[in-house]
Amino acid sequence: MTTPLVDPALFHPESMSAETEELNQAVLARLADYDMWSITPQEVRDLRKAGKGPFPVTPRSDRAVVKTIDGPGGKLPLRIIDPGNARGVYLHIHGGGWILGASDEQDPRLERLAENCGLAVVSVEYRLAPEHAYPSGPDDCEAAALWLVENALNRFGTDKLFIGGESAGAHLSVVTMLRLRDRHAVSPFSGANLTAGCFDLGLTPSVRRWGDEKLILNTRDVTNFVNHFLTGGGSVDDPDISPLHADLAGLPPALFTIGTRDLLLDDSLFMAGRWNACGNHGELAVYPGGAHVFIAFPGQLAAQALTRIDDFLNGL
Q: Are 87 and 123 in contact (CB under 8 A)?
C-alpha cells in the first residue's frame, strides 16, 4: 500500500487529546459573545493593547530594541531580539488579518527562536489596513527584507537569513520572498517558517465551509479581513495578493505548520503541495485538533509544534 500524503488518522476526532479539546472549548467560550466588527479596527487595537481584548496581553521582552529604517511610507520600525553571536537572522512578520497585531505581541516566541536557534529576530512593524490598505503592508515587508539583505552582515555578523510568520504574517512572508525574487533578482532566505498562513484570499474550501463557529476565526472574520486589506483595490487572483497562485519555483525550504481545527487548513495543505510541485523542499506538519495559530497557547500540542519548528530551523 502506498503512503498517503497526509496521515488520515490525524483528522479523526479521537486523535485530538483531551487537553487540546479542553483548550478549544475554552477558546470558544471566551469568544462566544465577542464581536470585533461592531467597532473600528483602531478601537480593537487600542483595547488589545490596554489588556481589554479577549485574551491577555503578551509579556514584552526587556531584551528587545527598536531600530527605525526608511520605509516606503516613512519611518519603519523593526523590533530586534539579538542573542549575540547569532548564526543567522530571522525576519518575522506578525499576524492579525492585515489589520491587527504588532511586532511586540509575540516576544516570548521570538525569544525562543533567539535562544533555541541562535537567531537574531527582526520583527517588522508594517502598516495596517484599512488605513493603509494593499499594497502598503507588503511594501513595508519588502523594504525590511531588502534592508536585511544589505545590512545583516554588518549589523549582526551574519548574512544567513530566514523568514517566517503566522497567519497573515505567513502570507506576507511568501509575498516578500516572491517580490525579492521577481523584483530584485535575489533569493536570500535559507528557510521559511510558515504557520497557519492564508495563501488564497479568494478563500479556500475549508474557509468557505467553516461557518460561524469562532474557534479564533470564522468565515466572516476572514472575509472581512480580506475586504479591509483590499480596501484600496486589488484582485484576489493576483499572485501578489494570493501567493498560492504564483510561480513558486526557486523558493527556500519551508515548514508549514497547521492544526486540523484551523479554518485555514486547506491553505497550508494546498501551498505545501504546490511548494514541492514547483521543485522546492516543503515539509507539512499537521497537528490533531490544533486551532488557528495554536502555537500561541499553552499545552503539549503547541510544545510539539514549537520543537518541530526549532528542529527545522536548526537543520538549515
A: no
Is the four-CA dihedral 102, 106, 111, 113 of positive or negative sign?
negative
Residues 6+ away with beta carbon under 8 Å from 82: 63, 65, 114, 120, 121, 156
pTM, two decimals, is 0.98
100-156: pLDDT as tens digits: 999 999 999 999 999 999 999 999 999 999 999 999 999 999 999 999 999 999 999
13: in domain: no
Per-residue model confidence as pLDDT tens digits over 295-306:
999 999 999 999
Residue 195 · residue 313 · CB < 8 Å: no
Residues of the domain holding 145: 23-314
Query: What is the number of domains present in the chain?
Result: 1
The CATH code of the domain that includes 159 is: 3.40.50.1820
Q: Does 10 map to a domain?
A: no
**Which pLDDT belongs to residue 21?**
98
Q: Kindly state whether residue 128 falls inside one of the protein's structural domains.
A: yes
Mean pLDDT of the region 285-304: 98
Beta bridge partners, 91, equal 122, 163
Q: Identify whether 139 is part of a domain.
A: yes
Instruction: Answer yes or no: are the C-beta atoms of 99 and 55 closer than 8 Å.
Output: no
74-81 and 65-71 strand pairing: antiparallel
